[in-house]
Amino acid sequence: MIVVMNHNADKADIDRILQKLTDAGFQIHLSRGVEKTIIGAIGDKTRLGDLSLEAMPGVEKVVPILQPYKLASRAYMNSSTVVKVGDLEIGGDSIQVMAGPCAVESRDQLLKSAMLVREAGATMLRGGAYKPRTSPYSFQGLEEKGLELLAEARELTGLRIVTEVMDASTIELVAKYADVLQIGTRNMQNFFLLRQVARTGKPVLLKRGSSSTIEEWLLAAEYILAEGNRNVILCERGVRTFENYTRNTLDLTAVPVVKYLSHLPVIVDPSHAIGKWRFVEPMARAAIAAGADGLLIEVHPNPAEALCDGPQSLTPENFKALMQNIGAIAEVTGRNMGRIQ
Ligand code: PEP
Ligand code: MN
Fold first, then answer.
1. How far is the CA of 28 from the centre of ligand 2 (A)?
2. What is Dmax (Cα atoms) for the chain?
3. Which atom of ligand 1 is nearest to the CA of 235?
4. Which of 30, 54, 124, 340 could form a disulfide with 98 if both were Cys (CB 3.0 to 4.6 A apart)?
């Protein structure tokens, strides 16, 4: 439930409502806007009738929320969330492109990737130091060494770093190096991990589970928001369907649907969705046309030699072409391409 206070409600009015809701066992989330204060209350709605909140001074209206997620909903916050990563904004007018290899493999590979994607116009560098591989025999990542290389690449290029956290034991370490913590598709419903990652206060890139509904995805985001961390970026990365020509099926409907249901920014990862480099660019264009706030794209200086996800990785030349074409689409949709200051 949401209590919208009217614009002349004072602190005493707000405190009175907070006290009443807390006494009735509701969990409170306060959002003080420039014009209005909004109080989100989560708890047993059957107790609401007895509270007569609408009769209290300063209350404009009480709105019940029917969706199971509350803090993630547009009903809770109508204005779109803009997540700040340093001076970059995700969810604002600018499209941010996060690009780089699937995995950090070596100093040479990472620094080359960073310089090339920076030159083509990306604002963030991606790269896994801890890799969730389907087979235990596949390359598992360079771990802390990989994180150090990501930090070195940031130093060198000014790109912000997004990298995956796979389990709670490494959160502190990953958070020490990363600007954005990525939760991968396999962990979207690892609720303990979501809570712990949220508590770092760092922006979280939450990938959609490969078999998750939009509601389950937004409920996963709710776990992070409920810990007081408002910096959630959703990432559509394809879902599993009967189609097996592509790695997954890119659910682009998720972009406008999530933007309608939620105030959180949404980006699209066509690389993991499609799994074949040839189709990454057209779907990246479609994602921007559909209203995505950014892209996550795998780029490798030499995809044929990649230790992970080579078949879906773009060459630097193909990435450059993608960036130019994305720029044109961003412009016709009234957006612009993010830049590093
Ligand atoms: C990745 O971004 O490299 C990755 C492992 O993605 P996902 O969790 O979407 O499979
Ligand atoms: Mn990958």
1. 38
2. 68
3. 9
4. 124
| Per-residue pLDDT, 44 | 78
**Element of type H or E holding 99:** strand 94-100
pLDDT given at position 341: 81
Tokens for 48?
């609401």
CA atoms within 13 A on the CB side of 56: 22
Identify the nearest ligand to the CA of 299 by its number. Answer: 2
Q: How far is the CA of 247 from the centre of ligand 1 (A)?
A: 12
Question: Does residue 237 line the site of ligand 1, with CB under 6 A?
Answer: yes
* Cα 102 to ligand 1 centre (Å): 8
Centre of ligand 1 to C-alpha 208, Å, is 10
User: Mind listing the pLDDT tens digit for each residue in 210-233?
Assistant: 999 999 999 999 999 999 999 999
**Is the minimum distance from the CB of 263 to ligand 1 under 6 angstroms?**
no
Instruction: Match 């990306």 to its residue by tokens.
Output: 122
Q: What is the pLDDT of residue 177?
A: 98
**pTM, full prediction:** 0.90
Classify 318 as helix, strand or coil. Answer: helix
Taking CA atoms only, the protein residue closest to ligand 1 atom 4 is: 184
Residue stretches of the chain with pLDDT short of 50: none
Is 77 within 8 Å of 85 (Cβ atoms)?
no
Give DSSP secondary structure letters for 59-118: EEEEE---SS--TTBTTT--SPP-EEETTEEESSSEEEEEEE-SB---HHHHHHHHHHHH
